[in-house]
Amino acid sequence: MRIYMEADYAAMSKRAANIIAAEVIKKPDCVLGLATGSTPIATYKGLIEKCKNGELSFKEVKSVNLDEYKGLAGTHDQSYRYFMQENLFNHIDIDVANTNVPNGLAEDAEAECENYDALVASLGYADLQLLGLGNNGHIGFNEPDAHFTKATHVVDLTQSTIDANARFFASADDVPRQALTMGVGCIMAARRVLLIASGEAKADALYKMICGPITPDCPASILQLHPDVVVVGDTASLSKVVEAGVKVCE
Ligand code: GLP
Questions:
Q1: What is the pLDDT of residues 67-126, one digit of tens each?
Q2: Which ligand 1 atom is at minimum distance from the Cα of 38?
Q3: Comparing 55-59, 123-127, 160-164, 235-239, which segment has the lowest mean pLDDT?
Q4: Percent of the chain, pLDDT > 90?
Q5: Closest Cα to atom 5, ligand 1: which residue?
Q6: What separation in Å is there between the alpha carbon of 38 and the centre of ligand 1?
Q7: What are the residues facing 249 on neighbouring strands?
Q8: Mean pLDDT (the chain, rounded)
Q9: What are the domain boundaries of the chain?
Q10: Is the pTM of this model over 0.90?
Q11: Which helix (H) or strand (E) holds 147?
Q12: CATH classification of 2-243 is 3.40.50.1360, yes or no?
């Protein structure tokens, strides 16, 4: 695991955008695994800038997103499809037909999950999987549980995730209670994982992910078993990791 510590959110985002850009330059038809949440927004802005100034093209890139709220249409302004359109896809030269987000409105959610796994497998899994980190150590919407779930699945969101995401909705009551999420199988099958984190609120989760035991109680801890993980955090999010004496690159 390579850990980069940046001064703040802006510097973290810049490094993350550079790492993703390097992947696209190296392999123009790569498969990018993409994430939502507030953390990647400036990373996506960096990619948009590089695309607009001609440094980067996403014409041949394919993407697979981690998750979607169950019950939200892609046109709902809090759906993850909508987020991706607004924060990235509408501003770059990617072919929208090559972008994939689980369908939150699928009548048969279990079948949608199975199909999503088959789709990601048919694309050969992600060359680079971008991840944010939940305050409780979740990745995608893989919540703390008694076991790791390998396949894409429907998950009941924990109260802490509902509370954390309530800021994006009119009220906590409006936050969907379930989501469709890639399991740890597709995430671990990615050739490289890039996890980004910012702010003190992520310090505990980042510490448990990097220094704690590998346990489904902190789903991100499974990344300790992945051969190519790059973590980019800011000083606040990495404070406990540094305190524990883990070597970071600056
Ligand atoms: C959400 C998403 C995750 C994201 C996480 C952190 O629930 N499902 O993919 O990484 O929460 O969000 P944020 O970046 O806003 O802290």
A1: 999 999 999 999 999 999 999 999 999 999 999 999 999 999 999 999 999 999 999 999
A2: 15
A3: 160-164
A4: 98
A5: 134
A6: 7
A7: 4
A8: 97
A9: 2-243
A10: yes
A11: none
A12: yes
Residues with CB under 6 A from ligand 1: 35-39, 66-67, 132-134, 140-141, 161, 165
Distance 36 CA to ligand 1 centre (A): 6
Q: Is 227 exposed, middle or buried (0-12, 13-18, 19+ CB in 10 A)?
A: exposed
Query: 63 - beta bridge partners?
Result: 32, 99
Which atom of ligand 1 is the closest one to the Cα of 179?
8
State which H helix or E strand residue 82 sits in: helix 80-87
CB 112 within 8 A of CB 202: no
Question: Distance from CA of residue 199 to its chain's centroid?
Answer: 16
Which are the catalytic amino acids? 67, 136, 138, 143
* Residue labelled with tokens 């390097």: 22
- Distance (Å) from CA 34 to ligand 1 centroid: 12
pLDDT score for 250: 84
User: What pLDDT digit, counting tens, does each position of 133-145 carry?
Assistant: 999 999 999 999 9
Got the DSSP string for 182-221?
--HHHHHHSSEEEEEE-SGGGHHHHHHHHHS---TTSGGG
The single residue listed with the structure tokens 């309530």 is 166
